[in-house]
Amino acid sequence: MKYKKKEKKLQKENITTAVCALLNSGGGLVRVQIENKDFDYRLDTLGLDIEKSLDELISNTTSKDYFDITQDGLYLNIFVKSWTTKFFLSRICSVDTGLYSRSFTSKKKASPMQVMDMMEEKSKGKRARFDQTLFFPEQINELLDRKYFHLNEKLPLSESLYMEFKDFSGASDKVRIQEAIPDYFSAFANSDGGCLIIGVDNDAKVKGCCTQCSESETKHLVEERIRKLKSIHFDYCDEGAPSYKLTITNVRDDQNKPSGFVIILKIEPFCCLTFADDPQSWIMNSDSFVSHIEDLKQLNPSEWIEMMSTKDTEGTIHGTEGKYYILAMQPED
Ligand SMILES: [Zn+2]
């Protein structure tokens, strides 16, 4: 399949999405119309990027267990089997979980299997019993009480599993703050909590941020972004929203003039899951024999969690008994 770069990316996304939906809906056939008349699957294959993305979808287990691919004239037939948990996979298949966790001194996208582990651990209340004070440096409390920081002052802290510094001084700091908050909030809330400190570089030196904003604008910027995050409780849980403490402290330069702020966002461990983005996982949403890419339904965070929590004994996922989907795709889909 020879396509231009942009079309190729679209093709990869569409094929991955379609395959994900079929895996989650009892299996079926993706029938891709081939544009290039000289295409020969035996010689040209799917292309490495599509293969890689399908491999990730099945968590790098054996592709033969899930896919059979044949060419039928100007059509490529991708036969997709039903998702099963018998290979110790998560309950449903997802391209991206939309969730982060904390790993050493950075955030990490959680894989579907990690999410299963997180859900199991959280359901046993392990996270709730975790004692943060054992790991949090006491110095943080003193810093939270400070009236102001000096520009370039070195704070008595370092980055850790519970501490992340971000230096967003300079242009586009507002955009970068809004981009960072979902990922780090999700990572700390889903793990054992922690502090995101914005306006401080990797060596713990105060740099300030939001020099063009007032304190209340800065506060609003952060709180607005937090308010948009989707935090979902498991069905047995009746707790409230994730809790956090936001402290915004002035920074002064060596002439004692204002030089932006340091934002300290302390995030408590959350009982359930906080999403940075919607999960990328699809199911078939059509009763007709032949479906199209528009007929796929992307699961929202609540639906996704519900399906991830479904207990089954057979090892097969929500069997759409007797139903066999055919998904037709044109090259420019
Ligand atoms: Zn909860």
Automatic annotation (TrEMBL):
<dbReference type="InterPro" id="IPR029684">
    <property type="entry name" value="Schlafen"/>
</dbReference>
<dbReference type="InterPro" id="IPR031450">
    <property type="entry name" value="Poxin-SLFN/SLFN_N"/>
</dbReference>
<dbReference type="Pfam" id="PF17057">
    <property type="entry name" value="B3R"/>
</dbReference>
<feature type="domain" description="Schlafen AlbA-2">
    <location>
        <begin position="159"/>
        <end position="271"/>
    </location>
</feature>
<dbReference type="InterPro" id="IPR007421">
    <property type="entry name" value="Schlafen_AlbA_2_dom"/>
</dbReference>
<protein>
    <submittedName>
        <fullName>Schlafen family member 14</fullName>
    </submittedName>
</protein>
<feature type="domain" description="Poxin-Schlafen/Schlafen-like N-terminal">
    <location>
        <begin position="64"/>
        <end position="127"/>
    </location>
</feature>
<dbReference type="Pfam" id="PF04326">
    <property type="entry name" value="SLFN_AlbA_2"/>
</dbReference>
<dbReference type="InterPro" id="IPR038461">
    <property type="entry name" value="Schlafen_AlbA_2_dom_sf"/>
</dbReference>
